Amino acid sequence: MHPLLLVSLPFLVLPAPAHTACECGHLITSTNDFFTHRLLTRFTPPNTSTNSTLLATWEPQTWLVPGNLTQLTVSRRNEAANVFLSAGGLTLRQRGWDGKGPVSAAELHSIRDNFLFGSFRMRGVVRGGEGAVAGFFVYYDDSEESDVEIVTRDADGGRWVHYTNHPAYDPNTDTLTPNATFKDLLAKPWWEMQEHRLDWTAETTKFWQDGVLKRTISKNVPSHPGKVMINLWANNGSWSGQPSSIDVTLEIEYVDLYFNTSESNEGRDEAWNRACETAKGKKDAHCEVGAEGVSENRAAARSGGARIMKRVWTAVLGAGLVIGRWL
Ligand SMILES: *[C@@H]1O[C@H](CO)[C@@H](O)[C@H](O)[C@H]1NC(C)=O
Ligand SMILES: *[C@@H]1O[C@H](CO)[C@@H](O)[C@H](O)[C@H]1NC(C)=O
Ligand SMILES: *[C@@H]1O[C@H](CO)[C@@H](O)[C@H](O)[C@H]1NC(C)=O
Ligand SMILES: *[C@@H]1O[C@H](CO)[C@@H](O)[C@H](O)[C@H]1NC(C)=O
Ligand SMILES: *[C@@H]1O[C@H](CO)[C@@H](O)[C@H](O)[C@H]1NC(C)=O
Ligand SMILES: CC(=O)N[C@H]1CO[C@H](CO)[C@@H](O)[C@@H]1O
C-alpha cells in the first residue's frame, strides 16, 4: 500500500475545491505572462487535496541511483515511505545516514509530462542537518532542466539558494557554464517557510522568493516540454557533501502551477479552446494572479480581461478555429 494512502487524517476527506473557473486562463500580473492551465495541490487545510487527488497528480519515485567508486559517491534510493502527508503538509524526508549503504531519499514527479512554460510555485521549509539537496525543478533530461536548489551544507546561516539552467557544467573544460548557474542570497534562511517560484518562458527563467524577483537567467533556457519535480537527496558527492547523519525534511504547504502544455501553447488544445469559448461571457472566465501565495479565483479587471481575450483570440485564430464575436 502506498504511504499516502496510509494517512487518514480527517481533513484529507474534505472535498477538493469545487470552484474551478478561469476557463480562459491566467494572467500573471507581475510578469504579464499568460498561461492556459492551473494545477493547485494544497497539502494543508483549508481545502486540502484528497489523497486520491494527490496520487492522481503526483508520483512518488522508487528507484536507486547507483554510486560511483571513482567519484566516491554512494548510491541513493528514492523511497515511497519518504513522501507522506502530515498536519504540516506534504513531507519529503531524507533519512539520517549511518555511513553505510544507500542514502534513503525522496523524489516526487508530476504525472503530467507536457508542461511547456509556466509559473511554478512551492511554499515549503527545509529542516535538518548539513548534507542534503532540496530541489524544485522542471525536467525533461539533463540538458533540458531548470532548478531551484537548497544545499544544506552552504554556510552563512542558511541564506543561500542555487538557480540553474542545465547544462551548467562543461566537462571538457571542467568549468561552470557562465551565466547558467547562480548562487544567490535567500531573504530568509531555508529553515523558515517561504515560497520558491520559478517562471519559465521561451526566453528566460526567472526565480522569485516570496513574490520578489531575485534572478533572471537567459542562458540554456529549456525548450522541451517536461515534468515538475521535487526531491531531497544526498550522495556524498561534491554537490551534496557527506549525507546528513540526521533526518532532513522538506515540508510543503502547496504546489501551485500555472502553465501551458505543449498543445495549449500552440492553441491546439481543443478541449481548452471549447471550454473557454463556452465560458467567455462569465465574469471569472479569465483570472489575474498576484505575485505570491495561493490566489483565489479573481475575475480579471476589464482591461486585463480584454488583454487576455486578445491573446487567446490570437492563439485560437492561430490554430485556425473560428469563434464568435466575443472581443
Ligand atoms: C475553500 O473551502 C471553503 C469551504 O468549503 C470555500 O468557501 C472556499 O471557496 C474554498 N476556497 C477555494 C479556493 O476553493
Ligand atoms: C564514475 O565516474 C568516473 C569519473 O567521473 C566516470 O568516468 C565513470 O564513467 C563513472 N562510472 C559510472 C559507472 O558511471
Ligand atoms: C564520502 O566522501 C568522502 C570525501 O570525498 C570520502 O572520504 C569518503 O570515503 C566517502 N565515503 C564513501 C562511503 O564513499
Ligand atoms: C554573462 O552575463 C553578463 C551580464 O548579462 C554579460 O555581460 C556576459 O557577457 C555574459 N557572459 C557570457 C559568457 O554569456
Ligand atoms: C501560453 O499559451 C498561450 C496560448 O497559446 C499564449 O498566448 C501565451 O503567450 C503562452 N504563454 C507563454 C508564457 O508563452
Ligand atoms: C483517508 C482517505 O481519504 N483515504 C483514501 C485515499 O485514496 C484511496 C484511493 O484513491 C481511497 O481508497 C482511500 O479511502
TrEMBL record:
Residues of the GH16 domain: 9-263
Family matches, as Pfam families: Glyco_hydro_16
PROSITE patterns documented for this protein: GH16_2 (PS51762)
Signal sequence coordinates: 1-20
Family annotation (SUPFAM superfamilies): Concanavalin A-like lectins/glucanases
Signal as UniProt keyword: yes
Top-level taxon in the UniProt lineage: Eukaryota
Keyword Ribonucleoprotein carried by entry: no
UniProt record, GO biological process: carbohydrate metabolic process
CDD domains: Glyco_hydrolase_16
Annotated InterPro entries: Beta-glucanase-like, ConA-like_dom_sf
Segments crossing the lipid bilayer: none
Keywords associated with the record: Lectin, Signal
GO molecular function: carbohydrate binding; hydrolase activity, hydrolyzing O-glycosyl compounds
Name listed for the protein in its UniProt record: Concanavalin A-like lectin/glucanase domain-containing protein
